[in-house]
Amino acid sequence: MNHPTRPEGLSLYRRWRPQRFSDVVGQELVVETLRRAVAQGRTAHAYLLSGQRGIGKTTLARILARAVNCTALDDGEPCNRCESCLRILEGRSLDVVEIDGASNRGIDQIRQLREQVTYLPAGSRRKVYIIDEIHMLTGEAFNALLKTLEEPPAHALFVFATTEAHKVPATVISRCQAFELSPISEELISELLLKIAEEEGLKLDEAAGRLIARRSGGALRDALVVLEQLAHVGSVSEESVVQLLGLPRAEDVDRFVTALLEQDATAALSALGMQARKGRDIGVFLDEAAVRARDRVIAGNSELIPIARRLIEVRAELPRAVSRSIHVELAVLELCGPPRPAASGEAPSANGAHAPSPPVSKAPTSVEASPGGVAVEEARAQPPGTAGGPAERPDDPWEAMLAACAQDRVSIAAFLAPAQTSFVDGVLWIRLPSECRYHYEALQAPTERAYMERMVQVYFEGLLTVHVEWEGEGREALTLEESARLAAEMLEGKVVEKEHT
């Protein structure tokens, strides 16, 4: 890419817009095909250039328009010095017409174009029509354009550009020479940014250039826009790129990925919460986490492959999520299991003793997922600790049940993890802290309630009923008579008072 000869008032990406085929980067095959066609005088009457934004579709169309009208061609390259080239470069040519397909998409505009095509060029060799975002034309407009594409005047040349080629009718594509432009590689964009910064007298760190290139997604134009934004504040560092683009810090991303690898739900959820407090986009954070996981896999950590895949899946699911934050948090709990209680606030176990919850990585896998719920008989036949190795406390049914839930329905395990429990006279008491109102309400849903009750029946012998409380309601513990009534309702029976003799 040569240094441009453009007024200083133009934006950076406009000053560095390629002016010749040889200046276009990352599209070697397309560029060479068009250049040879011009050099041999064998250009087609219509071309379709497709690909993502910012990779050079419209730029190529303008270079082609100058090349077919240049009076001093240099092996298919426009000279950019003859009268024809200068008129086109300065926007004074009546023979090169650029049309925005998004705002001129109706049949009336295409009918007007068909009438104009019949007129001979006003001082040029070819009359060139460049239609950008052609996929935005209506069906009637495409039909009106077909006749002209089938039998165009010899002096007419159509160049169509689109970011969504699949929306262009096959009848139109079949009448064009179609080229799909590729995203520009990160390495090439990074090299060009450093070169342009040097030419423009800007200070750009190599790390900052690589980060801009990665976030540009293959679009050189987007990368140049970011570089110009940052250039106003002086030296462009990696930190300034992070601040401008709202990216998470590398250490925050690495801490999150490590937490997922170690199945530490508390640390992973804390990392997500930190991004939310900073106002960062959770989607961007997942993008960066997936990239970091990929990098660590390449470095030799194959255990991160399923984590990277899941992060990509969750990122793709975000646009359809009712709550983006809850959707991501549940995905984290799916990967890590429920949070482990802190040492100072250990949750009491079902037998009344205090004991820490076992690590999820050592949880038993006694309950397999099934379409209709829990396979109760299979779980009974295979007690905790026999399928996936011995549990840390096999004599604690509450911990064993939580571990099994984490394997089958991680959301239920997450709802139950903060609870305090006790098992008295056949009644399992589950009391949730005041800050866990959402957990309590979620467990009242019929499907969640039925699942939980099936699970406790598997792990608690002699169970009569389950009672879930939320401290925010401030209710007192039930009396023995009330407990008996609940047990009777659970067993579809009734309480009978025995007369004393």
What do these coordinates show?
- The chain is α/β, with parallel strands linked by helices and 501 residues long.
- The chain folds into four domains: 12-180, Rossmann fold (3-Layer(aba) Sandwich), CATH 3.40.50.300; 186-245, Helicase, Ruva Protein, domain 3 (Orthogonal Bundle); 250-336, Zinc Finger, Delta Prime, domain 3; 343-490, no CATH class.
- Helix content is 47%, strand content 10%.
- α5 links the parallel β2 and β3 (127-132).
- α9 runs parallel beside α11 (238-245), α12 packs across α14 and α15 runs antiparallel to α16.
- Residues 343-394 have low confidence and may be disordered.
User: Which structural class matches the secondary elements?
Assistant: alpha/beta
- The CATH superfamily of the largest domain appears as P-loop containing nucleotide triphosphate hydrolases
Biggest beta sheet attributes: 5 strands, parallel
- CATH classification, class level of the largest domain: Alpha Beta
Contiguous low-pLDDT stretches (5 residues minimum) are 343-394
Strand order of the largest sheet: 2-3-4-1-5
Shape: elongated
Number of distinct beta strands: 10
Query: What is the gyration radius calculated from CA atoms?
Result: 34 Å
The end-to-end distance, rounded to whole angstroms, is 107 Å
- CATH fold naming of the largest domain: Rossmann fold
The total of helices stands at 22
Percent range for β-strand residues: 5-15%
Round the mean pLDDT to the nearest integer and report it.
81
CATH architecture of the largest domain: 3-Layer(aba) Sandwich
